[in-house]
Every structure is written in C-alpha cells, then in structure tokens.
Amino acid sequence: MRVFVTGASGWIGSAVVDELLAASHEVTGLARSDASAAALEAKGARVRRGDLDDLDSIRLGAQDAEAVIHLANKHDWSNPAASNAAERAAVQTIGDTLVGTDRPFLLASGVAALTQGRPAAEDDASPFHGPDSLRGGSENLALEFVDRGVHTVSLRFAPTVHGTGDHGFIAVLAAVARQKGVSGYPGDGTNRWAAVHRFDAARLVTLGLHKAPAGARLHAVAEEGVPTREIAQAIGLAFDLPVASIAADDVHDHFGWIGTFFGMDLSATSIATREILGWTPTGPSLIEDLDAGAYSAR
After folding, report:
1. Which residues form a coiled coil (predicted)?
2. What is the CATH number of domain 2-159+196-222?
3. 298 has pLDDT over 80
4. Per-residue pLDDT tens for 204-234?
5. Which of 190, 191, 194, 180 is nearest to 256 (CA)?
C-alpha cells in the first residue's frame, strides 16, 4: 500500500515509518528540512518536501497515496492558536482530498479532557469542536468525513509516549526538575497520566491501518494511569533530586506551561482498542524507562 505520512521524521512518526516499511508498505514522508528528508531516504522511504503550512504539498501527498497517516503538529505552546489553525487546515485538506475514495485516513489525537473523574474510553466523544478548540477540533472534523466516503480512524495517544530519546512531556518535566533543583508533583500527586512506549504506539498505528473500522477511536494506551507523584519520584531518583509537592497556586510558576497538563488527570483505558486490533503492549513501563536512564542518559 502507498502510505503518505505527515510528521514522518518525528518522535512517533519515525517509528511508524519503520513499522510500515517492515510491513512492505511504500511510504512517502512529508519533510520540511534537508535533515528530515535525508533520514527518510536512508530508511528507504520517499520524500515529499513541505510542512503543515504547505497545504498544496499535503494535498498532493494525499492524492498520490492509498492511505494517509497524519501525525504532524506544530506543538507551539507559546502560540496554541497557530498550532490549532494549522492542524485544522491540514485535516480539512486531507479530508477534502479523500472524499469518496474510502481510503484510510488515520490522524493523531489525544485523551486530554475527554472525561472527568474516570479514565477516558474509546466511546467517549471528543468535546472539542470548531477552529478555536483544542487541536482545532480536528478529531471531530476528520470523523465527519466518514459519511463522505473517507475511512477515518482517530489515534488517541497517551499524554506520554515514552522511550529513550523522547523530547516530549516527560523530558520537559525532567528539565524543569533539573532547573529547579527539585522534582515536583502537583498537590497530593494522585492525578494520573496514561502512558505508552513509543514502539508499542507505532505498532498500534500499523495495526490500525490494517484492521480498524471507519469511525474508530483507538487508544494508544499501555498503562491506564501513572500517578504524578510516582513520575516525580522516578525523575528525582534519575537525577538525584529531592521530591516535593507543589501547591496548586504555585503549579504554573513552578512548571511553566506544562503545569496545566501535569495538574490534570489524563487517565485512559484501551480495552476496546486491544479487542479490535489484537494489540498487546510489550514495551517497558514509564517508570521502568525512567529507572533505566531513558531520560537521564542525555
């Protein structure tokens, strides 16, 4: 199958490209830099130059493909409106291009703010609609294309997709701990974060391409929820730092922008996903990765 991947050189995308190539798919990755293009070509993937703002390149990539996996995101936390607008425009472009083709369109989403007081499940609809909402309401926008002949599948990733080399949320928390000289957690540290190892997440994406029905919401979640206190304790152990509770009023000042997320309960299940795909995570847990030096050996 000819598969077009945005975010192909990113943390999750690069692992997904490896899985797709291993499954004998013909992969074309969107690359915005010479380094990203070279990395994709070295793996045996094809390259289409462009970025999330280059809608013409995204449109052509989708036209030429038999399936699209959209993993790119600007992740500009200083300007979330710009990230949301770019995400919505890219999803709209891909959806419009695939109308009436019944081709698979898999897109990255998340489990944040889907529920309150319980782990999010696959049948929980996203509350985010419209261009001004989180991710520009891209999940709901993409799922609207199911009725227009697009085989849309939402890939809801855990807030931490961890592993050696990760530069995401856990790496940011580790950097804050080193800067502050203390590994903090919000309040009593009982709020939880779902987690999944990078390689398990990549395998889920490939299985989703092969097996997921149109309109499915898949949860890339291996651990339903790791308490933030345990995360902070593991970071403290990794960097030989004291561990302390951070009062609710001080969370933003202590952690910066990531404090908003670290103070949230982002737990989620993946029971339905495992049944649909036959997916069984086998990678190390988040705490095992931290204890093994995945974030301190840098």
Report:
1. none
2. 3.40.50.720
3. no
4. 999 999 999 999 999 999 999 999 999 999 9
5. 180
Q: Please say if the pLDDT value at position 2 is more than 90.
A: yes
Domain 167-194+224-267+283-291 maps to which CATH number in 3.30.1050, 3.90.25, 3.40.50, 3.30.420? 3.90.25
For 53, list phi and psi in degrees, rounded to 5.
Answer: -85, -10
**223-227 and 160-162 beta bridge pairing:** unpaired
Q: Which residue has the tokens 């309109």?
A: 215
Written as one letter, the residue type at 6 is: T
Q: Structural domain boundaries of the chain?
A: 2-159+196-222, 167-194+224-267+283-291
